[in-house]
Structure formats: C-alpha cells, structure tokens
Amino acid sequence: MAEHKFSVWAPRPDRVRLDVGGALYPMTRTDDGWWHAVVDAAPDARYGFVVDDDPKVLPDPRSPRQPDGVHERSQLWRPTPEAWSDGGWKGRSIEGAVIYELHVGTFTTDGTFDSAIEKLEHLVDLGVDFVELMPVNAFGGTHGWGYDGVLWYAVHEPYGGPDALIRLIDACHARGLGLLIDAVFNHLGPSGNYLPKFGPYLSTGSNPWGESINIADADADPVRRYILDCALRWMRDFHADGLRLDAVHALVDTTAIHILEELSAETDALAAEVGRPLSLIAESDMNDPRLITPRGQGGLGMTAQWDDDIHHAIHAAVSGERQGYYGDFGTLEALAQTLRHGYFHAGTYSSFRHRRHGRPLDTSVIPATRLLAYTLTHDQVGNRAIGDRPSANLTPGQLAIKAALALGSPYTAMLFMGEEWASSSPFQFFSSHPEPELARATAEGRKREFAEHGWDADEIPDPQDPATFLRSKLDWDEVGTGDHARLLAFYRNLIALRRDESDLADPWLDHLGVDYDEDRRWFVMHRGALSIVCNLGEQPVDVPVGGDVVLAWGEPAIAADSTGLPGHSVAVVRRRG
C-alpha cells in the first residue's frame, strides 16, 4: 500500500466521492472543476467515483485499465521500465512506407495481442514497415470494430489488456516494425459512456455516429486536454510510433488553433523528447490539402492522410463497380487524373455529394508520400452490405493489377490484413453490445440501412450474431495454397521492388507519367525508367511500351517497342535507353 493521488475533472456534480475497494472517501474540489483525494491504495487497486447521490460507482474517465469491462470499476496500472526491450529502436516516419492495417480480434484465431505476435514474421517476410491496429481502446462487449470506445485511455481487455499491448509493440520494434494505433476522438460509443455525468464532454452538435465531442463550446479546454493527453499517452507510455486519427472531418473546431494543429505541435515536441519520429495519419473525406500542409506554411501539420479517391479510382476501374460513391470513377481517365494529382475531386462536382468537393493539391509542394494509397481498408470491405472482399468478385489477375498500381505508386502504401494472399474470409460489421435494446437496434438498423439500397434484408449479417464475428477471422491455412501463395509471392516482390528501386522512391507527382487506352483497356504508370503496364480487360492487348520484364502477373510477350499482355494481367517493365 502507498499513498496515491486520485483526481477527476467533474464540474457538473455538487459532490464526488472516491471508491477504493468498496470504501468511500470524500474528495475536494478546486476552482477549475477538478476533484482530488489522497488515499492509501495498492498498485493494482480497483477504484471509481460516486457522483452526487447516485450509488453507481463510475469508472475513471482517464482509466488506465478496465479489467471487468467499461461499466465497472477502474484499476490502477502503469507501465514498468522492465516491460520494454526496445531501447535501440530509432523509429522512422511513415512517409513512403508500407503499412499493414489489422483488426486484433480477427487477425488470428485467438484474437489477442499475444497471438498477433506469432504472425509478425509473416509481416517481416512480406516486407511491410508498420503495423496499424484498428482501435484497441476499451469498448462495450467482448468483440467489435472498436470505433465505439468509451474509455479512450484503457486498452480493451479481451485483447489482453495494456501489458499484452506492450508486449506486441515491443515485439514489433524487435523485428524492425513500427506500430500505429487507430484513435477515435470524434464520438463516443453508446454503451458505457458515463462522461456526461462528470462534465460537458459532448457538444450541441452531432455527426453520423452520435453526439459530437465538445472541442469548441463553453468549457471545451479540459475536453481538448483530455483528447490531447490520450493521444500522447499512446505514443509516450505505449511506445506507439504514431496514430491514425479517425474521421477528423467530424472534429468541428471553430477556434483559431484547430485541435489537430495543437496535436501536431505536441506530437513533434514528444518526438524530440523521445528521440524518434512520431507520425499522425488523418482519415478525412474533405480532400483538403491544408490537413497535410506543415504548420509553418499555414496547415494543420498532419504527417499524412488516407486518400479514398485513390482507392475509388483503382477499384472502380478494375472491378467496373459504379454504384454509390464510385459513380464519378471507373474510367481510365479518372484513374489517370487521380494518380497524377492525388485527388480526383479538387474543387470539382461530386455526383455522390451533389455539390463541389475538394481543393487542388499543389503537387510541386506536397509530396505524394503524404497521401495513403490502398485498394482495401476495413471501411471499404466492412461497410459493404455483406462484408465481401474484392477477392470474392475479382480474378487473381485483377487483384494483382490493383496491388501493382498501389504499391508501384509514389504514395505511402497500405494493405488490409489478408489482402496479400486474397483471403476468402469476409470482414463483416460485428458488435457484441450486452444491452438487449442496443443489440436489437444495431441489428435492425444495419438491415434497414442496406434494404433501403436494394439489398434483401435477410442477406445482411446480424452484427450481434457471434457467427458474424467468427466468419471474419482470417483463415491462415490458405496462405500456402494455390493462387493464394502465388499472389502472396507477387506482393512480396512488389514491396521488395518498391524498397530497392530508386525510381519507385521518387515522391513527386510531377515526375509521374501515365498513358492509357480507354477502349482497349490498357493503362501504364511510368516511374522513371520503370513502367507498370496493366491490361484491365479480358482480351489480350499489345501496349506500346517495350523493355525488360522485372516482375509480372501473367505471361507478357516483350518486343522492342511493345508489351503483349493477356487479359487481367500486369507487368513491371524496365524501358531500354
């Protein structure tokens, strides 16, 4: 037992008492709305707060651990220096890297941090540079995507809790892999959100996922500090190499210094303190280059951002899908424009939004490495009605074309778990809300949403059915078989080329060239002396680019001034002279 100072920001209640192991202690309020108490407690003591006359013991908003779930008492926890062996890890920026996004619960059969460690050699052999974890903050239930977190400082216990997360990050660093954590600061989940009982954490506005976070209304300063401290904690206490920031367009900040700019400055200060690069990747659908413009040039200073336009342009061109937000894409002209300029919508009309969208990117100032290119993400598969991957609908050759365009591009690249071997497992939307009414509303809302878009409601998986979660787990037995093994080898070779060929390291879009034939369905992306030559059609074509084949899917026929490609195939060609 030792003295421990407990504190909580709670300007709303008239009285707050501290519960430690079932014993209640008074707390003293200061003028800034914080309550404090110094009490003898064990290093792993369970504790919580009792607000006014409500007997419910509430978890700490800054809870370091929730061993019994988000509705129960918190537990004291702090990392120990002995847990780490990564003193030699110098880190690296994500710019130009290859990132591997994964969901801990479905990446392996056991669905834990420790079982993920057993698969790290696969990622090393693949050649990726970073692992990006979908949210690992504490959320209601045993399994889910993690975007409905309510205790942002705590680590989801079914994954193994904070100690196991440390083991995973330490193991990544031992293998030369950086680790990024997906952080959600734009909304709170519906199960276990007790923050409004303490203070004005929520604003008067809303977004598609619920009430917005108060980052600009009255009493917003402590809420902003709550967000900033949480973000920095992942990188300082857990040694994460950066964060992916979910849907930052939903962070409505009307103050003169945007919270992302503030986070960028504090992240740079922490990076200087710990002596290694720390990266911030924003998810935004605004196509606003100010997000990735340095603070000194009037921007918000994010290291990079997800670029859905690149995904849409590649996927629609290869697959032929044109529904929903794919409506403006699908042509090779759209693919060429997007690859050359970073954004497709850049102050241009978006038929999906029924308005102008985006802002042009100055490609002479902003390098392509500040945008992420990908052909698959948790969103782009999981938010489909039945969670079907491209591998369920496309040929292996079409998947190889998509991989070559993303990994052969000058953008920072990202893969989604299992993509590299064309996993047959779907990635469906799943949840495990313990509250019956919430569980029913989630399932019915999902079916209703897709029924409105023409789907048979009976085909929509029930998010609350445990089978939906189990179906979404990767089947690692596929990896070494048939086309799965062949595609995996192609991905490995593409990533090795990206690493070893200086022409593929050029980050400037002004140096990228494209040629295409809309009718004959061939497309070429030129990167220095290398050309990624694609046949998106089913029939063989001769493409007017000759040279030596460096890597291919299919059996290209090379001539001095042309490359013959069978249907749905791709070749990386080194031009002569």
UniProtKB/TrEMBL annotation:
SUPFAM superfamilies: (Trans)glycosidases, E set domains. GO terms for molecular function: 4-alpha-D-(1->4)-alpha-D-glucanotrehalose trehalohydrolase activity. GO terms for biological process: trehalose biosynthetic process. It is an enzyme of class 3 (hydrolase). It is found in: Cytoplasm. The active site is at 246 (nucleophile), 283 (proton donor). Signal peptide: none annotated. It catalyses: hydrolysis of (1->4)-alpha-D-glucosidic linkage in 4-alpha-D-[(1->4)-alpha-D-glucanosyl]n trehalose to yield trehalose and (1->4)-alpha-D-glucan. InterPro entries: DUF3459, GH, GH13_cat_dom, Ig-like_fold, Ig_E-set, Trehalose_TreZ, Trehalose_TreZ_E-set_sf. Transmembrane segments: none annotated. The keyword Manganese does not apply. Residues 101-498 form the Glycosyl hydrolase family 13 catalytic domain. The record marks 379 as: Transition state stabilizer. One of its GO terms (cellular component) is cytoplasm. Its EC number is 3.2.1.141. Belongs to the glycosyl hydrolase 13 family. This is Malto-oligosyltrehalose trehalohydrolase.
